[in-house]
Amino acid sequence: MSHDPGQTGTEVPVCPRHPDVVAYVRCQRCGRPTCPQCQRPAPVGIQCVDCVAEARRNAPVVRTVLGGRARGDKPVITVTVIGLSVLAYLLQMVLGGALTSRLVFAPSIGWVEPHRFLTSAFLHGGALHLAVNMYALWIVGSVLEPALGRWRYIALYLLSAIGGSVAVLVLADPEGISWITQVVGASGAVFGLFSAIFLVMRRLGRDATQILVLIGVNFALGFFISSISWQAHLGGAVIGAILAAAYVYAPKDRRTLVSVLATVGVAVVLLVAAYLKYTVA
């Protein structure tokens, strides 16, 4: 005589997921026996892991005012970017200039190795440089990521970083020192986030004066401190503003479409701008 795991009757109840485990506790939702490994606390009683997963799949998606998915968890993308930047800096310290020379951006090398347009944003010129950028990324990113949603946030960050490198390229003189000057740091991407948080606060009707002052002060520093690339700041800020405007002010019923088109459009414009600069130079 055969039986199904979890069958009621005179047979000893066993967990459907673990047929070799006796389970006298039953799921309050489906009624099947569930072993301690598969039990999940519920508002009333215990539910099995399958019912909890099904309820999670069927739960309505809660959106923020700006269309981001309200997850209620940590800003995963922001934490990941910070972790990658810190890891890259540690590798820079261990490997010396070997890693930096392979990933740093300079207009003279971008045509041959285009990955440098982005990889340079994960490198930094010192512990203070890293700390300042990562602090700004955490403060602004932990607010923007849940507001915009993960895919729009990471698109904004990466394209702002690339936009900073493209601005360095476009504004460089092929016959001058700027053509071979190396640029590292997440400043371009961070300035993109600055622009975005400014527009988000304006969209939500909040006072954005402090953000505007912060952007102005940080941008002005690039003209007084020679080691700071104001070109990267400018490029990141412009790209961040364009994308954020599309993400934030798009009609609700067309938000996804507008966001996708804006993201692809900005990526294409950056590609064309870099191509034209290299072909002219």
SSE layout:
Blueprint: E1 39-41, E2 46-48, H1 49-58, H2 76-95, H3 97-103, H4 107-110, H5 116-119, H6 127-148, H7 150-170, H8 187-203, H9 209-224, H10 230-249, H11 255-280
Helix pairs in contact: 2-3, 2-6, 6-7, 6-8, 7-8, 7-10, 7-11, 8-9, 8-10, 9-10, 10-11
Account of the 3D structure:
There is one protein chain. This protein has 281 residues and is mainly α. It has helices at residues 49-58, 76-95, 97-103, 107-110, 116-119, 127-148, 150-170, 187-203, 209-224, 230-249, 255-280; strands at residues 39-41, 46-48. Helix 10 (230-249) packs antiparallel against helix 11. The chain is elongated, with a radius of gyration of 25 Å. Residues 1-9 have low confidence and may be disordered.
Beta-strand proportion: under 5%
The CATH architecture assignment of the largest domain turns out to be Up-down Bundle
**Fourth-tier CATH superfamily name of the largest domain:** Rhomboid-like
* Cα radius of gyration in angstroms: 25 Å
How many domains in all?
A: 2
What's the number of helices? 11
- CATH third-tier fold name of the largest domain: Rhomboid-like fold
Keywords: Hydrolase, Membrane, Protease, Transmembrane, Transmembrane helix
Pfam family, one: Rhomboid
Main location: membrane
GO biological process, one term: proteolysis
Please summarize what this structure is.
The chain is mainly alpha-helical and 281 residues long. It is built from 11 helices and 2 strands, in the order ββααααααααααα.
Keyphrases for this structure?
Rhomboid-like_sf; 2 strands; disordered N terminus; about 280 residues; mainly alpha; two-stranded antiparallel ribbon; Rhomboid_protease_S54; Rhomboid-like fold; hydrolase
